[in-house]
User: Fold these one by one.
Assistant:
Number 1:
Amino acid sequence: MKVVTVVGARPQFIKAAPVSRALRAEGKEILVHTGQHYDKSMSDVFFEELEIPIPEYHLHVGSLSHGAQTGEMLRKVEEVLLAEKPDALLVYGDTNSTIAGALAAAKLHIPVAHVEAGLRSFNRRMPEEVNRVMTDHISKWLFCPTGTAVNHLAKEGITDGVHVVGDVMLDAFNYNTQLAEGKAHVLRDLPVQAKSYVLITLHRAENTDDPNRLKAIVNAINQLPIPAILPLHPRTVSKLKESGLSITNDNVHVINPVGYLDMIQLEFQAKLILTDSGGVQKEAFFAQVPCITMRDETEWTETVSYGANKLVGANTDLILQAVSEFKVDFSNIPSVFGDGRTAEKLVEIIKRGL
Ligand code: UD1
Ligand code: UDP
């Protein structure tokens, strides 16, 4: 079994860590890094600390407009596929690297495995929604984290090749939680007490690229009544500069993006998590920390329906009200994202299907 895996963005490196381990135990993997994320804190740090194999190919595509970035990736992934002639191609999630990898393979009749298939926000203005819908429709194996994703696919007429395997992010989270206990150090250098701060992440284009939404969120952050830690995504750094907005609340510690082990520590020790990230919503659920999501909808609907996550959009008052009032009793919430052995399951399914 020879599989080409295409990754390019931070959450994909984290997801690749457990899957690459499982793939390389069963066959040959060729890892391709598109270069969508390239800062050390957005890329190298994950390869080093999670022991992800050094990519066999680095395409150095970098930051471009959607069409140019996706097009460059498509052209360069195709070259890799023509040279390597793999049995299958594997992609994760919903980024431009995902659709570029999947499309390059589909056009060459190389079967595509999509990890995190069937997720939907039903908001086609999100670039991620377009990427994930298209990728699902050209995949042979659709690895769904939950039954909700299976239902979404069925409504679009996709039933063949659909497997509920759980979520590889839980594999990564469980595997690295113990490592984080010994190696994470970010909290040592910050003047905050455990369980008394809000962990914030903010990067989603629908928030950062809309001046009104960004302003409403920054207003809320500047009025937070308790300390906060904000590892800031480079997209948000540049959008704040462009819009002339800034974080003026002295209790909000704005830091560079952190590695995964530090992030796990920040999540476990937080009183609350305030985010617009897909992955961080799930990790809040895994760590049993209440999550407030600055979006109008979420793909991770189970976290909301079990009462562990609250959607507040980009509304200053709703954000502040949720920070003051939102509480979660995790004692009766089941584990809905599998058993942490998703990587092995999906690799076995690909192997059997070849
Ligand atoms: C991308 C994904 C998004 C995912 C996110 C994870 C798409 C369409 N979006 O969004 O789904 O949630 O990754 O973090 O694929 N930049 C740097 N250094 C880097 C990377 C980015 O400075 O290493 C800056 C550049 O100014 C760039 C901007 O961030 O233009 C946005 O990067 P891009 O990869 O286009 O989108 P993300 O917002 O990171
Ligand atoms: N993450 C990290 N350091 C940070 C911010 C996030 O390691 O400074 C991790 C986070 O724990 C999660 C993943 O990055 O595993 C989420 O990525 P992101 O929020 O960029 O993208 P999304 O999940 O929204 O696509």
Note: Residues 10-11, 14, 201, 203, 231, 257-260, 263, 277-280, 283 surround uridine-5'-diphosphate (ligand 2) (CB under 6 Å).
Number 2:
Amino acid sequence: MFIVYKKVKSLTEVTKKIGDKILKGERLTKEDGLALYDCDDLAWLGSMADLVRYRISGDYVYYNVNRHINLTNICTSRCSFCAFGCDEDSQQAYEMNQERVLEVVKQATADPDLSGLHIVSGLHPTWPFEYYVNIIRAIKTNFPTLHLKGFTGVEITHFAKISGKSIRQVLQTLMDAGLEALPGGGAEILSDRIRQQLCPNKATASEWLEVAQTAHDLGIKTNASMLYGHIETIEERIDHLLTLRKLQDKTGGFQTFICFPFHPEHTEMANMVQRTSVWDDLKTMAISRLMLDNFRNIKAYWVMLTLPIAQLALGFGANDIDGTIQEEKIMHAAGAKSSTSLSKETLIATIREAGRTPVECDCNFNIVKVF
Ligand code: V47
């Protein structure tokens, strides 16, 4: 009883100090971030994050009408947290050629509200860089009004390696072909220790950051993410957030931040790690909002969180609920329990029920309509 009392008392002192800083709009330190993770008062954490969310972006909650396309699941990286990537000779392996991609995009444009595409794929062992450039050019030529967000920092690094071009040249070539933004995947945890263990065959932390910085220099906005709930420590989560905050101070080019709670099903780690708790998910959402004071948007990715928890997360610092998606494969390969697609009406109702204003936007957060 005494131990519990002592813990609650000392936490109250620490959180009071941090709460004062938040109310004054002061930047939180690494120590503050660690102390916030120690705090079990989830309601207080939520209210602090909600306050910061309101200050930064008011009551608008963004969603978009989009379509995910994964060109191939064949992947040379084979990260131990991923259930989507596979070898070329696997029964699940698939490849989309340009004709098929254009067919899928045409079908998607049957929805007059479709604003853009989200393209993330495996690191294919033999496709040349030109293959991807031609696909982007073909989509843009045939569907010029669609916004194209594609290729994570990991894919861009792969393209640089296979083409012998610099990261800047790769990005410039894709931009000239019609690419407008980069998704936030591939950041995982920006720590060499973690990457060596989980994903040694792809971009290092500094390569991922170099892609983001170069894209921002060229005027391409990118997203950022954190994959948590595997082998990382709480300190590594906070360091990850601080690394992103530092780069954002420099460039201002990150548009939104996404927390990916690790889904272990069908991955190499399925027997080692359990799915994160809702408690951890909401805590991480709130702490991300509080630490990333220079990010305008924090995404509650309904695919990973499920729709009810994503709705709840709108009270824990999030102001972006992603999109209609139409076909989600990466997270569902790893056992995501949400549906693979949602209607625009469902997203609008979800945001409204949370007491917020639904705002439809494109992949660069340009407002299409305020409801
Ligand atoms: O880098 C893969 C994550 C990312 C698992 O920018 C997993 O708006 C949890 O980039 N459990 C790729 N997470 C997806 C991606 C993305 C998705 C949605 C929105 C945006 C955006 C970007 O997916 C990977 C990795 O971090 N991931 N496997 C898994 N088992």
Note: The two ends are 51 Å apart (CA to CA).
